[in-house]
């Protein structure tokens, strides 16, 4: 027997112990959402009335999904506005940058826009439409994929900078490439697994935990190694310069690099800690929704800061090739 057409009037009043089969009440009767069979007798615990989230686990799970996602979306949208402003500034002020770099930045910004759309879509589906379902929305799945890709692209750009700044040191860049590859493959693996599972309650399965832990820990390790490597090689340039003005500028560059690196590293650590320490909650979604935007903005900020550093000391720009702020090819804008 099929349920009545008033699908929008349903109310969840029960579930099994895995919260995968919901008993739904309609004006004409009660149905099991999994089999669409008529439920002839409803246990007393399924009595239809308003219950607090603590008394009614499905509403508690729903609230745990909505709250972090909503907070993350409210922060992600303004950050995307900053991304767009940074991108416009970049393309207007550095038209002579290498085409590969400009195409890379354009791709990163477009992908960041897709990520913004994904979290907004997820919020609309899960929150505004009030869909009391533990199934993933397409937006959440898309966010998992796109965030992983965005972080990978930004980390590859930083890895190339370290490659140039270090004088093509194979050991450091190989370690960074390995961590980036580990982050990417485990992130895609977790995204595929969640798409297959399609259920929030299976988020922390054994395999998913392994993928997620590998992804987030690799991200943290890669960020810290990038910041440490840049600071180390800039400090080497500083010791070799012997010119006070140059040393002061390189000190500023070191502080700048460490500050930018710490920002992304701290958020990556927060995502990792909330993922590992709070497996029964979805707080990590708040930070996961915005971390890719921090990566994109950190890349754009360093690129847009080139003219400011060049204005202070052109000789330093020439001597180190602006590797920390460039991608190895110098811009003609000075």
From TrEMBL:
The organism's place on the tree of life at top rank: Eukaryota
Coiled-coil region: none
Residues that span the membrane, as ranges: 69-91, 103-128, 140-160, 172-196, 216-234, 254-276, 282-303
InterPro entries: DUF6534 (IPR045339)
Residue intervals of the DUF6534 domain: 219-307
Keywords per UniProt: Membrane, Transmembrane, Transmembrane helix
Protein name: DUF6534 domain-containing protein
Annotated source species: Pleurotus eryngii
